[in-house]
Specification:
Strand content of chain B: 5-15%
Distance between the termini of chain A: 31 Å
Largest sheet of chain B: 3 strands, antiparallel
Helix content of chain A: 25-40%
Number of helices of chain A: 1
Number of strands of chain B: 6
Shape of chain B: globular
Number of strands of chain A: 1
Radius of gyration of chain A: 11 Å
Number of helices of chain B: 6
Radius of gyration of chain B: 17 Å
Oligomer: heterodimer
Largest interface: A-B, 15 and 22 residues
Chain lengths: 23, 206
Amino acid sequence: KGKSLYNIKQKHDSGIKAKISMK
Amino acid sequence: RNALSLEEILKLYNQPINEEQAWAVCYQCCGSLRAQGRRGESSKRRVESPADIRIWRDGAVTLDAGGGSSSSARSSPRAGKSEHSRCRETEVIESLGIIIYKALDYGLKENEERELSPPLEQLIDHMTNTVEADGSQDEGYEALDECVVDENDKEVVEVVQSYRDVMKLCAAHLPTQSDAANHYQAVCRALFAETMELYTFLARIK
């Protein structure tokens, strides 16, 4: 897979991804 | 073809949209929803999936009332106020914010999270944590709400209550706010054109 154009980090409980997945 | 859904775009590229495209789709979608509101055609419905968001050849972005959602949820814009699928502007904004985030997160694993720039993360956070207006708010209402300005006189939206607030936040992201409409339309136009190019190329190869 080519180098992505954005940084990926470990999903964090208080991060926006966690907040949105609870919606 | 004159339009593509956001879902088709994601599937074709098999990668998430970039940040500028996210800003542009938010701005353009809220712009068309606001215009619909002014024409009294707003059939406010939550965005259920990327299939509901349509990017047009000219750079416009609209919500497809019937896109993918079951026919029972679909009803003509003329339907009365009591019909169950109508919802408040803030609910449409929240659902749009969620779908845009998912488009930014497309293809990432459950435990992976994309690092968004703080302004974009704040936009999505605002959109998904809207605040109910005090009743005086209806779409297209051009109230001169008291607004907060920062040190260089830039209007700061602190809570999102309307499509207009989302558009203001998107405009504030640009060096020249007055250029927002042209800029974001151009970004969406390019998104459509590049995707159609890829679509045609792949079809030819097939």
